[in-house]
Amino acid sequence: MQITILGATGRVGREVMLRALADGHSVHALVRSIEKLELSHPQLAAIVGDAREEAMLKQAVAGSSVVISALGTDGGDALSSCFPGLLAVMEQQAIHRLVTVGTAGILESRTEPGLLRYQSSESKRRSTRAAEEHHAVLRLLEASAEPLNWTLVCPTYLPEGPYTGIYRSEQNYLPEGGLQITVGDTADFTYKEAISGAFTRCRVGLAE
Predict the structure, then answer these.
(1) For 36-79, how does the pLDDT look when each residue is reduced to its tens digit (9 = 90+)?
(2) Which of 51, 157, 158, 198 could disulfide-pair with 180, CB 3.0 to 4.6 Å?
(3) Membrane-spanning residues where (predicted)?
(4) 46 φ, ψ to 5°?
């Protein structure tokens, strides 16, 4: 299978890429800097460009069955501004599987129904900018039409750490008492979910 990964030089994206290559998949990685990729592999094709440019997205996703986005926020609107183009390109090329990594802030609040966690007292963060960017992506995904099969992976606090396999997932909510999840475990879930499609057109909260 060919998989396109956006954000392959980031913490989660790199681990997802390594898992895909280890399983024998071909990977297209759209990156801004080839130097930051720091990897050469016969099944890896690096496309250097900006994910906000549709021409680069077309090249990156061509021939893929699955698109995984591990793009982060940059303090601006780079994340949300790339998604309209990405969804359009995927529709044009009849690619129906999309997994993107967000934040636990855009999960449903348990204590204040009708609000997302970042809008409620559950959030301890002073700035909501990153959550607002991911919320914009969520709105685009919710407004998309089938057959797009999307999953928005929402890890809680994400420290560096290896795969442990000891973590929980819950549709639309953060697992109760969840305080953190390692980068390795987040990448593990993201990669496996991209292949399995167990969660359809929804958010998934992740925590240990």
Answers:
(1) 998 999 999 999 999 999 999 999 999 999 999 999 987 789 89
(2) 157
(3) none
(4) -95, 125
Domains of the chain in start order, with CATH, are 2-207 (3.40.50.720)
| CB-CB contact of 6 with 13 (8 Å) | yes
Q: Give the tokens for residue 33.
A: 């800097």
Sign of the dihedral through C-alpha 58, 63, 65, 71? negative
